[in-house]
């Protein structure tokens, strides 16, 4: 068994309810391995440190536990997945400037962001895989690759499941790997 650290963010079923009312239910449902954040009205965030055989098992069991305690809670995001320059710098234990320099130096191979503008955002797993493939001298917790991969997979699947219409079949001409997505619908 390994210990996996991750964050789950949920929208509460009743925006006006006092989130404090959910804390006891969360503890009873098995979320006693999480720090609970109640900062934003109508939202709850849980930072887990959960033992499991795999990252995906740890995350899915935590989601089930939260939904047992708060049946109509809606998963917003699972992390760590999305990171900006500051997040990458924190994980690599370097400055933001060092990351920006790395991005310029390796502009031909550095991962493409999922959002580009004044703020750029990447999937963490792509950054970790890039760092590993380019033999960067950064060390990570051994579970970080596994958890980053699992959180991305869950977030992407969550987004796909929320589509109003099925994925068009012609998308496979542009994205051949979309066949797997079509099989899920």
Describe it for me?
With 185 residues, the protein is an alpha+beta fold. Helices cover 45% and strands 18% of the residues. It has eight helices and six strands, in the order E-H-E-E-H-E-E-H-H-E-H-H-H-H. It has a four-stranded antiparallel beta sheet with strand order 2-3-1-4. Strand 2 and strand 3 form a beta hairpin. The protein is globular and about 50 Å long.
Classification by helices and strands:
alpha+beta
Whole-number mean pLDDT: 88
How many β-strand runs? 6
> In this structure, how is the largest beta sheet organized?
4 strands, antiparallel
Indicate the overall shape: globular
Q: Specify Rg, calculated over alpha carbons.
A: 18 Å
Taking pLDDT < 50 over at least 5 consecutive residues as the criterion, the unreliable ranges are none
Distance separating the two termini: 33 Å
Q: Into which percent range does the helicity of residues fall?
A: 40-55%
Q: From N to C, what is the helix and strand string? A: EHEEHEEHHEHHHH
Question: How many helix segments?
Answer: 8
* Share in β-strands: 15-25%
Strand order of the largest sheet: 2-3-1-4
Set out the fold topology.
Layout: E1 2-11, H1 20-28, E2 34-37, E3 43-52, H2 55-69, E4 74-79, E5 82-83, H3 85-92, H4 96-105, E6 122-123, H5 124-133, H6 142-161, H7 171-174, H8 178-184
Helix pairs in contact: 1-2, 3-4, 5-6
Quick summary:
Helices cover 45% and strands 18% of the residues. It contains 8 helices and 6 strands, in the order E-H-E-E-H-E-E-H-H-E-H-H-H-H.
